[in-house]
Amino acid sequence: MNAARLAGQVRIVGTGLLGTSIGLALRHLGVDVILANRSPAALRLAIDYGAGREAAPGDDPALVIVAVAPDSTADLVAAELDAHPGALVTDVASIKGSILADLTARGADVARYLGSHPMAGRERGGAMAARADIFLGRPWVITPHALTTPAQERLIEALALDLGSTPIRLSPDEHDRAVALVSHVPQIVASLLAARLLGGSAAVPALAGQGLRDTTRIAGSDPELWMQILGANAAPVTEVLRAFRDDLDGVVAALEDPAAPGAPTRLAAMLTRGNQGVARIPGKHGSDARYETLVVQVADAPGELARLLTEIGEEGVNMEDLRLEHSPGAQIGFAEIAVVPEAAGRLAEALEARGWELARGGQTQGSTS
Amino acid sequence: MNAARLAGQVRIVGTGLLGTSIGLALRHLGVDVILANRSPAALRLAIDYGAGREAAPGDDPALVIVAVAPDSTADLVAAELDAHPGALVTDVASIKGSILADLTARGADVARYLGSHPMAGRERGGAMAARADIFLGRPWVITPHALTTPAQERLIEALALDLGSTPIRLSPDEHDRAVALVSHVPQIVASLLAARLLGGSAAVPALAGQGLRDTTRIAGSDPELWMQILGANAAPVTEVLRAFRDDLDGVVAALEDPAAPGAPTRLAAMLTRGNQGVARIPGKHGSDARYETLVVQVADAPGELARLLTEIGEEGVNMEDLRLEHSPGAQIGFAEIAVVPEAAGRLAEALEARGWELARGGQTQGSTS
Which chain B residues contact residue A2 at CB under 8 A? Predict the structure, then answer.
């Protein structure tokens, strides 16, 4: 067990996915975690899970983490500021500016409130889905305001680091504009795009490929949670949506009247700017220049993929990422294996020598047709 | 080597990704494949690849496949109809109505033209990326028109089946409306969304998660090809885009004036319709009700994933799909394993008994926060 950077008791209010996951992670580090939930049954579940203990007389938490739905967050932060006058109170809601404004408006002691936002989650919520490791390697945004002290920032930073996250400092407004771009507008666009399929003919879903699956995947998210998030971040979201709509209008105009001056240029600019935008996103898809991808053909038979991975291990090559492409009904799949560029050529030769069929340097994900 | 359903010579005009891949696949089946390309160097490359041979005096192809860029397709189909009066001519372009209209307008012998569209591709093009198996398990749309005979349909169906595809019959217009929905509009939306990132602050990309990566991945596609596709399918695409924009206007209005009558309902409807739309898409993400997903924690050490897959094989369970989630910098990853529901409970118990840590029934892909 590693020692926690955090010292003292931590109180977590709300034992859903995030609250319970934070509790589990802190308990692994030996921190004394006090859990609270208005539902005794939900509280019991999180305690049984090992995420912490019930409150007891004499508790004196140094840090309170409010981990409830966005539209209950300001209420509970205010209540905790009152109840624990010696504690720093933070929250984990995915919007920040409106919560601070709400607390300020109601005269809460915002000098002891420092909002934060761990950019982690899962498609299903609730304590049952909690896991100590969902924060590993994820950004944890800390949003200092005019009254925040360096010691308070260090405390939330210690929390983020204890959970394996990367702390990132942004003002509440910067945070809200950033998540509008990377999370809230993509959610709306994915939902609107998926909704369009409801008007299509019965043949349409059969033609769906990985491109459509990827662009619409997050449309499966929880509507109730998202209504709260979008409602609370309406101004930054509408600003991005309006710019998106202007661009969209330009595309529609160019398609409707391709002979108009500048129409082809506008389509080309849209596609090129899309190329440039996606290149800014770090991570596994498309733009991760750190790795080279080998695509290996794998028969759809038990043990074949295990044999491939065993043989990659025998070659002493570390696999950075793996994705399996497997068409329904096909007797064959493709394993896309990301490795450091230095190892790619050697591994390709070794695998071919071992009898594997592979296509070097390609990506089967997605189609341009 | 399996026997081909196709009989006679096949001539392929254009030796890019699709033409060369079709040639490779047909050669594997022993079909006599004649290749043509206006560039002698490109032709040589495809022949060296094993995709077919050069034309020779006395060639008499039963089938000609035109596999060139969309805006050259009608020209070359017309030329091939003239040059091979005994052959059926097809093409593989991702738009169909405008090509048929163009051929009809110029008086080509459209009674011998039957368009088709293999829904397959890769992110990189060219003969070098060709692979005989890119059509396996993919839809291959066949678009009969008023003059098409059943024998002609059977010939293109034999081609699709020979290459491992699933033939789907649609009229040219049905095809164009369907691909507008599943491919062309998603491309535009992904490009516009990715382009919005260019206006964001420097902190934005660091906050990107899997949701943004997935929604924007196809924005990395080739602008030149997509200008042709969008230009040739402008009417169906603008129809879908206009409906999308109307929905978007409704969302913007609801966010700008949340107190307006119906505003919350409109947001909820948008999100719920997104849920319903994504549920229509078959495949691996989110909505594939055929399988249950086990998420297993795997240490980032050589051989660990191979050991997991070997042990799954030892339990006699067939893995339907696999995805590895691995955060940059994290010492741990998650293997998401899709299995038939009947096997999920037993496999979960067996893996836990073997010491694996797992979260049952969840998906780590994406975040709601």
Answer: none
Report CB contact under 8 Å: B255, A241: yes
Q: For all residues of chain A together, what is the average pLDDT?
A: 88
Asked whether the beta carbons of residue B313 and residue A330 sit closer than 8 angstroms, the reply is no
One-character DSSP codes across B300-338: SSTTHHHHHHHHHHHTTPPP-EEEEEE-TT-SEEEEEEE
Question: Above 80 in pLDDT, residue A315?
Answer: yes
Average pLDDT estimate for B298-327 = 77
| Interface predicted TM-score (ipTM) | 0.77
Distance CA A153, CA A144 (A): 7
Residues above pLDDT 70, as percent of chain A: 91
> Which overall architecture, per CATH, does domain A176-279 show?
Orthogonal Bundle (1.10)
Which residue spans of chain B are classified as CATH 3.40.50.720? Answer: 10-170
Q: Where are the alpha helices (DSSP H) in chain A?
A: 17-28, 40-49, 70-83, 97-105, 150-162, 172-179, 185-196, 210-216, 223-232, 234-256, 263-279, 304-314, 341-353
Are B147 and B37 contacting, i.e. CB atoms less than 8 angstroms apart?
A: no
* Minimal C-alpha gap between B83 and chain A (Å): 27
Take residue A180 and report the two structure tokens written for it.
């509008």
Name A206's Cβ contacts closer than 8 Å, sequence gap at least 6.
B139, B168, B282
Q: In the predicted model, is pLDDT for residue B131 greater than 90?
A: no
Task: For residue range A166-181, list pLDDT tens digits in order.
Answer: 999 999 999 999 999 9
Task: Inspect the interface and report whether the beta carbons of B215 and A220 lie closer than 8 Å.
Answer: no
For A33-53, what is the mean pLDDT? Answer: 94
What is the model's pLDDT at position A2?
64
Cβ neighbours of residue B151 closer than 8 Å, sequence gap 6 or more: none
Nearest CA-CA partner of A103 in A88, A81, A85: A81
| Cα B248 to chain centroid, rounded | 26
CATH superfamily for A292-360 is ACT domain (3.30.70.260)
CB B270 to CB A188 under 8 A? yes
Within 10 A of B146 (CB to CB), how many other CB atoms are there? 8
